[in-house]
Amino acid sequence: MFIVYAALFVLSLARQHSAMPAGMSHEEHLKQMAKDEALDKRGADAMGFDQHAATHHFRILPTGGAIEVVAKEATDAATLEAIRRHLRGIADEFARGEFASPVATHAEVPPGVRDMARLKDAITYRYEDAPGGGRVAIATTDPHALAAVHEFLRYQITEHKTGDPMK
Fold first, then answer.
1. pLDDT tens digit string along 28-45?
2. Which of 3, 136, 146, 154 has the fewest CB atoms nearer than 10 Å to its CB?
3. Beta 64-71 vs 133-140: how paired, if at all?
4. How many separate domains does the chain show?
5. Which residues contact 74 (CB under 8 A, 6 or more apart)?
C-alpha cells in the first residue's frame, strides 16, 4: 500500500513541476518556476482572470501587431468576459499612453513601452471581439513607433512563453 501512495505522490509532483530545460541547473529551474508563478499571480491581479484559464498570443505584423487572448474552455463565461473587459481597457489605456497593466504584470517596464507612450499619437489600438476571447490590433506607419511595438511584443512572447514567431 505504501508503494501505491508513494507512486501517487510522485505523480502529483510531476504534474506540478515543469520539465527542466536542457542546460539549466536545478537551482536555475527552481528560480524560473518561482518567476513564472509570480508572473501568473501578478497577471491574474492585473488582468482579472486566471492565467491558466486563458491562452495569450502576441502577433508581430508589418504594420504593428496584435495582442490576442482566448479562454481555454469555451463554456467559461466568466473568463471570457474578464478577457474582453481587460483587452478593451488595454486598448483605451495604451491609446492614452498608459501602460500600468503590463508594468503591474511584469513588475518592470517592458521594453518598447517608453517609446510607445512617447509616440502614442502615432499608434492606433483597436479592440475586437474574437471567438472565445478578444484581440487588440496595433497599427502604426511611424518606423520608430513600429520598432517600439515590435520590441514590446517580442518581450511579451518571451515572458509569457507563447511560442509565437518573433518576426
1. 656 666 555 665 566 566
2. 3
3. antiparallel
4. 1
5. 132
